[in-house]
């Protein structure tokens, strides 16, 4: 790619990453999705403990609450922990964790589709699911531990 032959500014890793994002749009998309899928699940997960943004218990379908051996409040606390862990996992290993987040979002969508009045939120979460899958695909190339990227680097070194 021509973008990789451009001079990279000296500086810390952040300035190098931002420079690369400017000259390589796919890398910029990866960083944008990565930041979003790290920060937002952690914020939403923490909010499950405070209900500042909304009353999260209201999003649980009644049939699901009926199946649980504990209260809707306890369920939301568990969901909060899961979401915080998901954000941390995305930060550590996005190429795998993004698929886990997509699966989690699919479960949320199913819950919302079975509870009238939340179809708009289900549609939004479907968009997030698609974005998580896009992050997973981009991470196959841009995640520092990616075998595909390591393979490409090995090929470049052998030339």
Helix content: over 70%
% residues in beta strands: under 5%
Q: Please, how many helices?
A: 7
Round the Cα radius of gyration to an integer and report it: 19 Å
Main β sheet profile = none
The H/E string reads HHHHHHH
Low-confidence stretches: none
* Total beta-strand segments: 0
- Structural class call reads mainly alpha
Distance between the termini: 16 Å
Q: Overall mean pLDDT score?
A: 87
Shape: elongated
Notes on the protein architecture:
This protein is mainly α and 159 residues long. The protein is 74% helix and 0% strand. The protein has helices at residues 13-23, 25-47, 62-67, 72-92, 94-113, 119-142, 147-158. Helix 1 (13-23) crosses helix 2, helix 2 (25-47) runs antiparallel to helix 4 (72-92) and helix 2 crosses helix 6 (119-142). The longest helix has 24 residues, at 119-142. The model has no long low-confidence stretch (mean pLDDT 87).
Secondary structure blueprint with pairings:
Elements: H1 13-23, H2 25-47, H3 62-67, H4 72-92, H5 94-113, H6 119-142, H7 147-158
Helix pairs in contact: 1-2, 2-4, 2-6, 4-5, 5-6
């Amino acid at each position: 790619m021509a973008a990789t032959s451009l001079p990279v500014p000296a500086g810390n890793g952040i300035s190098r990453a931002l420079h690369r994002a400017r000259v390589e749009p796919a890398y910029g998309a990866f960083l944008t999705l990565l930041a979003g899928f790290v920060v937002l699940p952690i914020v939403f997960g923490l909010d499950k403990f405070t209900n500042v943004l909304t009353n999260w218990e209201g999003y649980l379908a009644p049939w699901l609450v009926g199946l649980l051996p504990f209260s809707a409040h306890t369920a939301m606390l568990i969901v909060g922990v899961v979401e915080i862990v998901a954000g941390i996992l995305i930060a550590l290993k996005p190429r795998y964790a993004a698929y886990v987040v997509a699966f989690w979002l699919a479960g949320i969508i199913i819950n919302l589709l079975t509870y009238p009045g939340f179809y708009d939120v289900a549609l939004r979460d479907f968009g997030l699911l698609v974005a998580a899958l896009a992050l997973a695909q981009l991470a196959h190339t841009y995640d520092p531990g990616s075998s595909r990227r390591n393979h490409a680097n090995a090929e470049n070194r052998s030339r």
